[in-house]
Structure formats: structure tokens, C-alpha cells
Write a structure and sequence with these properties.
about 280 residues; single chain; 5 helices; Purple Acid Phosphatase, chain A, domain 2; binds fe (ii) ion; 12 strands; six-stranded mixed sheet; alpha/beta; about 20% helix
Length: about 280
């Protein structure tokens, strides 16, 4: 194929325009262009599917408005889940507009039993090294007052229309708060599903000695910026880079990483925010 000099110069001249359009798309279009995904997971514990809503990484901040989070929750409520799991990073650094945030979270918890684990941005040793809180007491209070049960190295025994399972929420991995002993066991005590909420999927290595079926994670944001065609994700904040998002079968267990609702720095590219539904049998 021969390209004329004029066409080549025209192409070069268009690069700044394409760059500007790309930047507008990254900042204004993709960050709240939610994708609803639905996956079936067979763990052999439920006679009929347990329909789970899995959301993560709201990152309320100057970059992610509460209106955007409310839009995600409104869309989520249309999906008629039986239970909702929120896997951390409710804020980026500071909690503001608490009463409005509570109102939005209550829309979810008032219709769907909602459980959460804490993320590295919510407060703790890691957050304190940057612009965050040294503990997650503010986020804990936000969740409690919003009707959401936070599980911090704790177990909830649930029975949803005859579907019995143990739900274990772990502390954040980067904050050094992931403490599975006492809440997870090498052999489960009852013949029922064990589902784990853990913000950072890198925590899985420390959970190998324990008996569980499904772990729900966030943290990666899917990489947030994905290079088209090449699929490169240069900003993945995990050691295990071969598994940035989606459903992984890990031995006899399953791990689900959702790309999350919010973002850092107000941009996403080729990596839309995700509302996940998991149908678990
Ligand atoms: Fe996050």
C-alpha cells in the first residue's frame, strides 16, 4: 500500500485532535459507562442459584461523584440480586458529604442484604502512608449508619431462602490486616458454602491452607487503562498480573475480581466500570 506525502502529513496533523478526543473520552465518557456482567459459578453447594451482586471500589472523591455512584446503585437494583457484596475502597482518601453518601448506600441496603469488607483506601497502615486515614473508623461508621454490615476478619452465617452459607470478610492485605485464622479453617465445620470477601486478590496465597469455595475481590480496577489490541495494563496494582479481572478457577476454588465502579484520577480507558452479577450453584 502506498501512502501519499499529503495523506501522511494530514495523518500527523490529526494526532493532537485524536489525542484530545481520547482524553475527553477517558475523562467524560468511560468512567460512568457501566457494564453489567453476569457469570455462572458452580461450587456444588446450592440447589438453586444464589444471585449475588458484586460491586467494589466506589472511590468517592473529587474524581468520582456521588451522583455517579448513585447511578451505579440504581442500575444494580434493577438486577434483583438476593445479596450484595461490596469489596472495599469506598473512598479514595477522605470521606466527605457523609449524609448524601449514606442516603445512596441505604438505597441498596434497604432492598438487598448488603455486606462489605474494607479496602486499602478506607483507612489503615497503608492509607496513613499517603493522604488517607490511619484507621477505617469513619468508613466503618458510614457503613453501619447505611445499613451495611462490615465484616472485618469476621464471619456471618447466612440463610437466604434456605440457601445456607458462611460469609467471611477479611481485613485489607496491604494494610497488614488480613487475618484468616479464627474465621477460616482447614476443614469447614458444617456442610455449607464458604464465601470470602477480600479486597486485594493477592491475599489468596495466604488463604491456601483454608477451606473455602469462592472469593470476591476488587482492588485492580481491571488495570483502569488497557492498551487496545495489545491488552497491556501498565498500572495493575497487584503481584499476580496474569489475572487482572474476571472469574478464575484456582484449584478447586473460584476467585472473582470485579473491575469496580469508581477509579483513581478520574479516568478509564478500554476498561469500563463493572456491575457484576454472580449466579452461584
Ligand atoms: Fe481501588
Amino acid at each position: 500500500m502506498k501512502i501519499s506525502r499529503k495523506k501522511f502529513l494530514t495523518f500527523l496533523g490529526s494526532i493532537p485532535v485524536l489525542g484530545a478526543l481520547g482524553m475527553l473520552y477517558m475523562r467524560l465518557a468511560e468512567p460512568d459507562w457501566y457494564e453489567v456482567t453476569e457469570k455462572d459459578i458452580e461450587i456444588g453447594r446450592f440447589a438453586s442459584p444464589l444471585r449475588i451482586l458484586h460491586l467494589s471500589d466506589f472511590h468517592a472523591s473529587e474524581s468520582v461523584s456521588l451522583a455517579s455512584i448513585e447511578k451505579a446503585i440504581d442500575l444494580s437494583l434493577e438486577l434483583k440480586a438476593e445479596v450484595a457484596f461490596l469489596t472495599g475502597d469506598f473512598i479514595t482518601w477522605q470521606l466527605t458529604e457523609e449524609s448524601e453518601y449514606k442516603r445512596i448506600l441505604q438505597k441498596l441496603s434497604s432492598q438487598v442484604p448488603t455486606f462489605a469488607c474494607i479496602g486499602n483506601h478506607d483507612g489503615g497502615k497503608w492509607a496513613a502512608t499517603s493522604h488517607g486515614y490511619s484507621d477505617f473508623s469513619k468508613v466503618r461508621a458510614l457503613l453501619k449508619e447505611s445499613g451495611i454490615r462490615l465484616l472485618f476478619n469476621e464471619t456471618a452465617k447466612l440463610d437466604l431462602k434456605g440457601k445456607h452459607f458462611s460469609l467471611v470478610g477479611l481485613g485489607d492485605y496491604w494494610s497488614g490486616d488480613t487475618k484468616p485464622s479464627g474465621v477460616l479453617f482447614p476443614t469447614r465445620s458444617a456442610d455449607e458454602a464458604v464465601i470470602v470477601l477480600s479486597h486485594n486478590p493477592d491475599s489468596k496465597e495466604g488463604l491456601k491452607p483454608y477451606d473455602w469455595d469462592l472469593m470476591c475481590c476488587g482492588h485492580t480496577h481491571g488495570g483502569q487503562l488497557v492498551v487496545p489490541l495489545l491488552g497491556l495494563r501498565p498500572f495493575l496494582p497487584v503481584v499476580e498480573k496474569s489475572f487482572p479481572e474476571g472469574l478464575l478457577t484456582w484449584g478447586k476454588r473460584h476467585i472473582h475480581i470485579t473491575r469496580g465502579i469508581g477509579n483513581l484520577h478520574g479516568m478509564r480507558f478500554n476498561c469500563r466500570p463493572e456491575i457484576s452479577i454472580l449466579n452461584v450453584t
